[in-house]
């Protein structure tokens, strides 16, 4: 099962390290089977508990999955090879619609805010033993959350949305726990969960967000956590409607022990209201453990690396307590900069700009008979039969798009296009090229 390679280590940590090295080098491919626990123990002359401990370490590191009598296998995408490890090669002259960055023309200039942040140091801020959260950022964040009907008594600050979610998961979950995720969904989240030893449980998504039947099935399967994108869903642009939000809240209320995490990376770039699942309209919490992560990466700039977290007191306290033992705090220079930019930021023009580009592209595609999705945010999702040929065909016509395989687990193939580098006059020629590529590939398939 390990090919020509023979493991020589005899301690659990060393066995795990050897297997991890084989996976990292490519000698053990994704999906490859590992020897049965007892067989490897006999071969190495060690106690089966030693091999069991090694396999447990590999599972917790997101390298392998174990399925009882079906044995252990390298994960289809082990944590050693994240989805964005192989960046698309963009030839000179090709328009890049593949990355997920915001339009730099819409980002505020941080220079003045940075300069002010350097001068406005409060006593003890940014020093050992000082406060973790800048008072200015805390005030802006509380106002933002309260405006969306969210309790803002407990708030933490993390270095971006993914950092916040990792800390939340580690506060309540254990290796082997299953987490309901949107499918298609955020590729970085799909990579993070196995790296923590957690199992993604895919839930279908339509234009209104996570489906009720899909979430019902995931809850029945015993997931311990649910991750939802309320608006600007990556990659489909889905946005929770009022009816869908009400249905999902009712469903979650029947599972109060499930951890609910809401990712609001779209804050500040959309004009849709925030329909939280964590709190009912009357202010009562839907579940006992919840968190809403609000990032400024898309609205103020990815390099600021700041996200604020509102949640139940226990969850936020656990996140902040673990943070103190590691990073300690998020730089107060960044926090003060974000507070200044956020307070002065007017989201309407940015949201209108992205909406105009999404709508123009989707409308142009519809004229060519190509269905597409993108109610909010930066992305348009186009279902296709063959991602590889579609990506290659568009590259030949001067457009680099992202293959949907980076963002899906069980759902059908598609393409993700980022509208942030598009201008309105680009939408019609892009749609025409997409239609041409898809028609040609469909014709080729029929001729086989």
What does this structure look like?
- The chain has 448 residues and is an alpha/beta fold.
- It contains 14 helices and 15 strands.
- The strands form 4 sheets. An 8-stranded mixed β-sheet has the order 4-11-10-9-8-5-6-7, with helices on both faces.
- Helix 1 crosses helix 3, helix 4 packs across helix 11 (332-344) and helix 12 packs across helix 14.
- It is globular and about 70 Å long.
- The mean pLDDT is 91.
Task: List key phrases describing it.
448 residues; alpha/beta; 8-stranded mixed β-sheet; 3-stranded antiparallel β-sheet; 14 helices; 15 strands; 14% strand; globular
Chart the SSEs and their pairings.
Blueprint: H1 12-25, H2 37-44, H3 48-60, E1 64-66, E2 72-74, E3 95-96, H4 111-119, H5 135-147, E4 155-158, H6 161-172, E5 178-183, H7 187-195, E6 199-206, E7 209-210, H8 212-220, E8 225-228, H9 242-253, E9 259-264, E10 289-295, E11 307-311, H10 313-325, H11 332-344, H12 347-367, E12 379-383, H13 387-396, E13 399-400, E14 402-403, E15 414-418, H14 427-446
Parallel strand pairs: 3-13, 5-6, 5-8, 8-9, 9-10
Antiparallel strand pairs: 1-2, 4-11, 6-7, 10-11, 12-15, 14-15
Helix pairs in contact: 1-3, 2-3, 4-11, 5-11, 6-10, 8-9, 12-14, 13-14
């Amino acid at each position: 099962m390990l090919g020509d390679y023979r493991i020589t280590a005899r301690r659990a940590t060393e066995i795990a390290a050897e297997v991890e090295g084989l996976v990292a080098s490519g000698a053990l491919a994704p999906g490859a089977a590992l020897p049965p626990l007892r067989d490897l123990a006999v071969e190495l002359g060690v106690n089966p508990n030693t091999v069991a401990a090694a396999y447990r370490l590999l599972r917790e590191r997101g390298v392998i999955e174990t399925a009882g009598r079906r044995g252990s296998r390298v994960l289809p995408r082990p944590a050693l090879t994240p989805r964005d490890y192989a960046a698309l090669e963009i030839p000179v002259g090709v328009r890049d619609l593949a990355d997920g960055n915001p339009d730099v023309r819409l980002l505020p200039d941080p220079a003045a805010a940075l300069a002010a942040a350097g001068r406005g140091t409060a006593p003890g801020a940014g020093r050992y033993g000082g406060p973790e959260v800048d008072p200015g950022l805390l005030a802006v964040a509380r106002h933002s959350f309260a405006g969306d009907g969210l309790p803002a008594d407990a708030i933490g600050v993390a270095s971006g949305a993914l950092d916040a979610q990792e800390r939340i998961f580690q506060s309540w979950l254990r290796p082997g726990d299953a987490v309901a995720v949107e499918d298609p969904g955020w590729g970085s989240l799909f990579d993070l969960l196995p790296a923590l030893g957690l199992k993604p449980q895919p839930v279908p998504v339509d234009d209104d967000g996570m489906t009720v039947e899909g979430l019902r099935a995931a809850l029945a399967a015993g997931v311990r956590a649910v991750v939802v994108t309320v608006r600007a869903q990556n990659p489909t642009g889905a946005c929770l409607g009022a009816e869908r939000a009400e249905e999902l809240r009712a469903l979650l209320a029947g599972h109060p022990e499930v951890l609910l995490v809401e990712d609001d990376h779209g804050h500040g770039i959309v004009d849709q209201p925030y329909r939280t699942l964590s709190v009912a309209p009357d202010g009562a919490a839907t579940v006992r453990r919840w968190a809403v992560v609000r990032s400024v990466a898309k609205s103020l700039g990815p390099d600021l690396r700041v996200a604020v977290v509102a949640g139940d007191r226990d969850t936020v306290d656990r996140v902040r307590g673990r943070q103190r033992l590691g990073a300690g705090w998020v730089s107060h220079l960044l926090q003060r900069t974000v507070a200044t930019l956020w307070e002065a930021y007017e989201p309407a023009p940015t949201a209108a700009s992205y909406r105009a580009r999404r709508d123009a592209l989707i409308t142009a595609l519809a004229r060519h008979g190509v269905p597409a999705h993108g109610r909010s945010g930066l992305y348009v999702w186009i279902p296709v039969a063959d991602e590889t040929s579609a990506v290659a065909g568009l590259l030949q016509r001067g457009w680099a798009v992202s293959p949907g395989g980076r963002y899906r687990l069980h759902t059908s193939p598609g393409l993700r296009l980022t509208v942030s580098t598009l201008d309105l006059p680009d939408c019609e020629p892009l749609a025409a090229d997409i239609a041409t590529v898809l028609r040609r590939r469909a014709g080729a398939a029929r001729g086989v």
